[in-house]
Amino acid sequence: MPLILSARASARLDHAALRAAGQRRREDGAHRSSSAMAPFAVFATAGYARTRLRRVLRLRQWVPVISSPDDLHRLIEGSLSPAIRLLIPSAAEPREFLAAYDSARHFTLSPIGPCPRCAASVPTMCINDLADYGDWLGGAQDLAESPHYRTSPAHHRDCPLPIQPLTT
């Protein structure tokens, strides 16, 4: 049986992420989207995705990260390979992420959260560091969208979001 992150450890992770986001805002004066570019065209394996998530969230080695194929999303648009779903089991609330490539073939990590229109669990924003995750937790709207956000088949049929144009 894999270890699960205690509610206290989950709260510490969230607090560290929010603190990193706040520090970045103080240093930069505003939110930044994607403080570091994601790796380009790395061969994505479940092991690489777990390692990348550990680095981004600064997770200790004992924190379990479980990977599985995601049957709803492709690793890259047009491919047959499934994206990689990552799970940090927690007593409080499990954290889920989607690892896949964007259209420029950059490896992306996206927290899975509720769609604001239909409440379906979809990949939301791209995170490249702990501060990005803190911004996402804090509800920041200026992070880059996940490449699967609007096209996710997880959206409910009547959700208007997939057909809405991007606003920039």
Mind explaining what this structure looks like?
This protein is α+β, with helices and mostly antiparallel strands and 168 residues long. It is built from 3 helices and 5 strands, in the order H-H-E-E-E-E-E-H. It has a 5-stranded antiparallel beta sheet, covered by helices on one side. Strand 1 and strand 2 form a beta hairpin. Helix 1 crosses helix 3. The chain is globular, with a radius of gyration of 15 Å. It starts with 6 loop residues before the first helix and ends in a 31-residue tail after the last helix. About 6% of the residues have low confidence.
User: How much helicity do the residues have?
Assistant: 25-40%
Strand percent estimate = 15-25%
Rg over CA atoms, rounded to whole Å, is: 15 Å
Helix-strand string: HHEEEEEH
Unreliable stretches: 33-42
The structural class is alpha+beta
Give the N-to-C terminal Cα separation. 45 Å
Q: Total strand count, please?
A: 5
